[in-house]
Structure formats: structure tokens, C-alpha cells
Amino acid sequence: MRSAVEVEDGELAAWYGRAERPWLRANFVSSVDGAVAVGGLSTGLSGAQDRRLLKLLRMLCDGLLVGANTLRAEQYRPLTLDADRRGWRQARGLVPYPRLVVVSGSLDLDPGLPALAGAPVRPIVLTGPDAPAARREALAEVADVLTAPDLRTGLALLHERGLDQLLCEGGPTLLGSLTAADLVDELCLTVSPLLAGTGASRITAGSPHPPRTLAQVHAHTDPEGFLYLRHTRPEHR
Ligand SMILES: NC(=O)c1ccc[n+]([C@@H]2O[C@H](COP(=O)([O-])OP(=O)(O)OC[C@H]3O[C@@H](n4cnc5c(N)ncnc54)[C@H](OP(=O)(O)O)[C@@H]3O)[C@@H](O)[C@H]2O)c1
């Protein structure tokens, strides 16, 4: 098992890569005892190499999917990339920045949130048919508001807009909805060397659904004791 710090960005990008078909990758960090947050935030679980991986996976995607609660709780900043990572994308014919896609049924989102109002490319808000019209109108000032009856249809709308490689950064409710609909192709999980104790949820939440078997693609570590796991559907390994 190699240590993440031994690996240059280019090689790390090749380990994870972009898939050859529409793909949904989820990326989470959890404590060894399975907590998804410390004090309501994932920051306390992360480390330097985990943050590097997060940025690298953002570089690889076309669209970054995030649940409304995570956007609100984690106070997402505009989705930017540094010049090297923009250069990596442009060298491969990709637009400089991925697009932020916020999933929200209620549309209880302030259009002035920095992640929306300050985004370098117009974000997308994915919602359902029952979303309040006034909130839809307000958000349309800063984002494209797409309506779909379910997540499968919603992802198809994203694919139609050229967002084939999707990265989901959470949270648990959104991941639970995606796994329930059998839409997750890959899970990247950082295991943080921390006993977080009681209180926090797991990386997935929501209604129960049948378990699904995954195959491990790789595992690596870093000197701080973090473990980086990557699993995909067995047929895509
Ligand atoms: N450790 C990690 O890697 C990690 C990653 C992300 C988040 N987190 C933590 O997780 C917590 C937040 O997670 P969460 O589970 O409460 O929230 P979440 O999954 O981020 O967001 C849930 C919200 O997303 C919208 N949503 C999700 N699925 C939907 C669907 N199928 N259709 C329509 N809307 C849908 C709804 O928004 P509306 O309410 O607007 O309708 C729902 O209330 C925070 O503590 C955060 O720090 C940890």
C-alpha cells in the first residue's frame, strides 16, 4: 500500500481518472468509528492529504453534486480551482471549472450564498415539481433551476448538459437517496484516525434499501494515519 504523499498530483489523477461513460463518484470522510461529522461539520475529520484528494477529485469532474443541508452547514465557498488544476482540465479539452449542482426539494437556499452568487460558472439547482414558485424565481437569478420528478431523471438532465462525470460530496441524506435509486458507481472514502464518539450519523441516511456489493479498486494511506479507500460497482472494476 503506497502513501498518498509519495504520489504526484498527475499520478493520483490517473489512479482515480475520468470514466468512459456517465459516472457518479461519491467522496466522503468518516472517523474510524463511522461518524460523518464532528460538531456538525466534516472539517474535524479531514487532513492535508484528504483536502488535496478532495480538490483533485473536483478537478476530475464535470459537475459537483451537493445536498442543500451540506451547502448550508459547511458554508461552501465558490467552486474554484488553482491555475495548475485549471490547466490540467484545459489540456484535456475540459472547461476550466466544474459546475456546482445543488440538490434541494424545498429550495430554501439564499441566492446570496457565496457558493451560488460567487460561482465562476453558473451553478445548477436540481429540484422537484413541488418546489415553491417564488423561491424558484429568486434562485433563477443566480442559477439554472432544473426540475425532475426523481434523481435518476435529474442526473439524465445533467448528462444532457454535458455533465457526465459527477462527483457527489454529500451529505448522507443525498447519498442515501442516490444509493436507494442505485445511481452510485463509485465511493471514495477517507477513514480518519479518530474516535469521534456518539452523536453523528453515518455517511448515509434515509429510508432503508437493499445492500449492494462493491469491489475495491485501491487503498492507500498517509503518514498521519488516514486511509483512502476506493470502491466501484463490481462490473466496472
Ligand atoms: N464527512 C463527510 O464527508 C460529509 C460530507 C458532506 C456532508 N457532511 C455532513 O453531513 C451533514 C449534512 O448532511 P444531511 O444528510 O443533513 O444533508 P444533505 O444530504 O447534504 O442534504 C439533504 C438535503 O438535500 C436535499 N435532498 C437530498 N436528497 C434529495 C432528493 N432525493 N430530492 C430532493 N432533495 C433532496 C434536501 O434539501 P431541502 O431540505 O432543501 O429540500 C435535503 O434536505 C452536515 O453535518 C455535514 O457536515 C459530511
Describe, in plain words, how this protein is organized in 3D.
- With 237 residues, this protein is an alpha/beta fold.
- The chain has helices at residues 9-16, 48-60, 68-73, 83-90, 114-117, 133-139, 151-160, 172-180, and strands at residues 23-31, 63-67, 99-103, 124-127, 144-147, 165-168, 186-192, 215-221, 227-232.
- The chain has a single domain, classed as Dihydrofolate Reductase, subunit A.
- α1 (9-16) crosses α2.
- It is globular, with a radius of gyration of 17 Å.
- It binds NADP nicotinamide-adenine-dinucleotide phosphate (NAP).
- NADP nicotinamide-adenine-dinucleotide phosphate (NAP) binds at residues 28-30, 36-37, 40-42, 45, 67-70, 73-74, 103-106, 108, 128, 151, 169-174, 177, 205.
The level 1 CATH classification is: Alpha Beta
Reported CATH architecture: 3-Layer(aba) Sandwich
Average pLDDT works out at: 95
Instruction: Report the span from N to C terminus.
Output: 18 Å
Report the β-strand fraction as a percent range: 15-25%
* Total discrete domains: 1
Return residue spans where pLDDT drops below 50 for at least 5 consecutive residues.
none
Helix count?
A: 8
CATH topology: Dihydrofolate Reductase, subunit A
Q: Name the bound molecules.
A: NADP nicotinamide-adenine-dinucleotide phosphate
Number of beta-strand segments: 9
Q: Helical amount among residues, as a percent range?
A: 25-40%
Per CATH, the superfamily is Dihydrofolate Reductase, subunit A
